[in-house]
Amino acid sequence: MWQEALVGVELLLLHATPVYYGLGIPHGDGSGVVLIPGFLASDIYLMEMYAWLKRIGYRPYYSGIGMNADCPNLLISRRLNETIDQARRETGGKLHLVGHSLGGIIARSVAGSRPEEIASVITLAAPFRGTAMHPRVQEMVNLVRSRILHNNEKKVLPDCYTSRCTCSFLDHLRKNMPSGVAETAIYTRTDGLVDWRFCLTEDPDNDFEVTGTHLGLAFNPSIYRIVAHRLADPSSRP
User: Fold this and answer.
1) For labelling alongside 46, which of 11, 96, 138, 227 has CA 20 to 30 A away?
2) Measured between alpha carbons, how far is 195 from 173 in angstroms, rounded to an integer?
3) How many helices (H) and strands (E) does the chain have?
């Protein structure tokens, strides 16, 4: 986990690379891109990616879910779906979803529930195939789960925030990605928080390895290059 302290280095490197300024990468067509933050985080730390997407020709949207520390089913139904509806109205086309960590898991579930409205899903270090994580992270997950059950006892299932839950969020997540939705999974073997092997689609055309930290994937220059190419052409491998 100590490697996660290097996240600041990745942010500095991002500002020093041409890709951050839109150089040497394909630009967008005005499509909407919804950014979804990771566990215990809010939209604030995605400001760099939001501004960058706007610079290169996309119409980015923050998720609007607030702190990602609640039942995903409630976050989607109460807030994220409103953001997606707004983005659809304003852009008039299918949307791209980019999710970091737990945000990527949420993005894949949303694509499963609204496949006609989603063009692609890009996940950044999102363990959507399992829940293997650092013990310290598991402790925080357990604390959040206790809070969810205490605050939403009548609105959530008893197994909420576990892999045993039978809610629609996990139901959509367990299904294969709809055929009309392009998928991209970006991971790092030096991930200090989750097991990177659970972050792959197991389709080499869709999986991309980079070097960096789990937290730093939101600022990693290599990520930005991959995202730019995959948004422009989901079949490309930069």
Assistant:
1) 138
2) 18
3) 8, 6
The answer to whether the pTM exceeds 0.90 is yes
The residue written with tokens 């990468």 in the block is 25
- Rounded to the nearest 10 degrees, how much is the dihedral formed by the CA atoms of 130, 77, 146, 108? 10
C-alpha 208/C-alpha 200 separation (Å) is 8
Please write the tens of the pLDDT for every residue from 38-73: 999 999 999 999 999 999 999 999 999 999 999 999
Contact 153, 216 (CB under 8 A): no
**What span, in angstroms and rounded, lies between the C-alpha atoms of 63 and 43?**
7
Domain edges within the chain: 2-130+168-232
Is 123 within 8 Å of 101 (Cβ atoms)? no
Domain covering 2-130+168-232 assigned CATH 3.40.50.720 in the classification: no
Residue 184 φ/ψ, nearest 5 degrees: -140, 130
Which element (helix H / strand E) includes 15? helix 7-15
**Phi, then psi, of 216 in degrees rounded to 5:** -75, -5
